[in-house]
């Protein structure tokens, strides 16, 4: 199989990369009807499988789970997830032949073998669905011509797909129909109905393409969403310990601080996050984030280049073939970091203190969101898609760190995200070594405002505000957030 994207002529590459239509509420008035009464069979019951299935069932759809025989016999977690939630469970042979829609929610590294196993069992004219286009785009999987192939890709971890739905909201979602597989022209209607079933239509839906989803999703997850949050968390914690800050306090400030500062992003973008700081702290956070952007820009560009060329996938797939040797070693090393091993202290930190005592975290977030957004847009990804993959999803990943630190984040994200996260983190830390020698406790661990009189140069403040507020991520964000009127707040630690 050849990398599908690389087989396309340049104009078609650009064409597919540029597919990005924000869908109006009026396009979802048909609700879940296109899937009502159809049999939806989800393959795999993990992070996305379980949570999407719960939402789809609560939306009135008929959902069952096809698991591999070993998972059923061994009563593995996937079997427990499904049966404890009272779903029908069966083998591929039992459930796939009657399915109208087969939803493949197994890890990307298994897609070729899973699709090769289920495709011969699928009935004529059925639909195969993915939540990430890797198998189609990077591996060039060929699907039987009578089958419709759609994608419904929530822009967030599975746990948050459920949590937002239960809160009465949803998560932004990219939907697409594979241009090579839409023989009956029903793909879009089914993808829209599926998206209503998961609640995604409440948060914003982009009509995208498999190509645009893959090239933006991989970039977001490697850089700002997971890679940089991991780097920022570890470096911030280590710096506080080096400066003599209590370890329990340091652990708590980072674990919950990322969630608290990014919650402001969710509601009002970088502007709202930076406005939570005093004027003098905002100017300082702006300066250090500008420096971080300069240092990290080449790394962000390298990741995007490697994603576009297929080099990233090639190297990751080598590791798959090698029994995940690198991934497993990197996962184990993450578990051994001092941040991971130090429990959060039993100390009260007020919401404002998370901002005032963690300027460095705010600077990492601003730098990472803006860099990821700028790099994606420069590569031909549309601003709306880049916004979801950078600014909007950062708080949702931060929620997972608040639960159980980097372990939880890496457990709930996909296998491609976890691999890319470590790759970025390992390249980023050495790049920041010199910068970090200049960071003191006033930037992380202590209140930046302490001992300062609060005065600022008016012109400097006006110019900082101007740069923050007119960044293209803020412009598109303001527009997209208007469509998120039902967004709920989360409770902070
Ligand atoms: N994780 C996330 O939050 C996101 C994931 N996605 C996409 O969703 C899809 C699913 O990812 P994710 O939910 O992380 O997957 P998980 O790693 O959570 O695994 C899902 C399930 O697949 C089953 N499985 C594993 N290997 C096989 C196999 N060889 N054959 C059959 N079943 C297998 C596992 O059950 P068992 O081993 O018991 O059989 C497990 O329950 C991916 O395409 C991913 O890119 C998209 C957005 C976010
Ligand atoms: C963390 C990134 C993601 O792409 C996601 C949750 O959207 C993944 O693959 O897990
Ligand atoms: Mg994603
Ligand atoms: Mg992903």
Output the CATH homologous superfamily of the largest domain.
N-(1-d-carboxylethyl)-l-norvaline Dehydrogenase, domain 2
Alpha-carbon distance between the two ends: 48 Å
- CATH topology of the largest domain: the name is N-(1-d-carboxylethyl)-l-norvaline Dehydrogenase, domain 2
CATH architecture of the largest domain: Orthogonal Bundle
Q: Give the overall silhouette.
A: globular
Structurally, the number of domains stands at: 2
Strand order of the largest sheet: 1-9-8-7-6-5-2-3-4
Global structural class: alpha/beta
Tell me the helix content. 55-70%
Bound molecules: NADPH dihydro-nicotinamide-adenine-dinucleotide phosphate, the ligand CC[C@](O)(C(C)=O)C(=O)O, magnesium ion
CATH class wording of the largest domain: Mainly Alpha
Main sheet: strands, sense, barrel: 9 strands, mixed
